[in-house]
Amino acid sequence: MPVASQNNEDGIVELLYGLDSMGWTTTEPQWNIQQSSANWHGTGAREFVEALRAWKNREDTLENAHHTEQVTYFDTCQAGGFYTLTASIASHRSRAVYDCRLFFQLPGVPVDLQPIQHLFEQVDAATFSYFRPLNSPAVVRHHPELKAPLETVGYVVSHSELDLPDCDGAPEEWVTGLVVRNPHRGENRRSASDEWPGRVAESELLICALRSHRQLHEPKETYHLCSWEYARTSDALALRPVADW
Prior knowledge:
- With 245 residues, the chain is an alpha+beta fold.
- The protein is 15% helix and 36% strand.
- It folds into two domains: 9-122, no CATH class; 140-244, no CATH class.
- Strands 6, 7, 8, 9, 10, 11 and 12 form a seven-stranded mixed beta sheet that branches. It has a five-stranded antiparallel beta sheet with strand order 2-1-3-4-5, with helices on one face.
- The chain is globular, with a radius of gyration of 19 Å.
């Protein structure tokens, strides 16, 4: 749904605060900021807001920065389903928002529509009228027969939820994800696999969830792509590749 009240970057931040106040946020939302020749990925609502504010730092790192940035924010719903927030924001101190859309995909029709109606009122959206059923699977999952080897270029590291210190007195650090080169990026940026979503073929790098977490100080020699799942929205593609060792 188009969100009419978000005229600039501050409106995006206010929308996130509104979603949080109504219980529509979790502890680990994921986001992406796309510029002309680079992408920035992250986790966390606070980190997303900080990244939005740091637009000038991103612009200074690029030789030919585009006049707009495209942002995508993804989070799950506690009762099932997910939502995406997409917007185009000017790479200028005005930080004008040219287009802002909020998309929900739910497992069914809620019995109580009041929370959604209240959300629509908060974001000044069009009056809610009906739910549109999907005519295709909500989530597409694939497990390749051959485990594609991965070229790892970085790790996604998290601290132990129990916050137990290691032998040096510091909290334990766990590798929960990988930054890898796209194994299905074929020639002319076309997908090298029929099952791989075509829109991802242009991405040079991927961020994969790691099925078997490991401690940072215990490296593994090889990783492989064991599965992936994705869902399409009206404005975005939510992809979750899963790797293992």
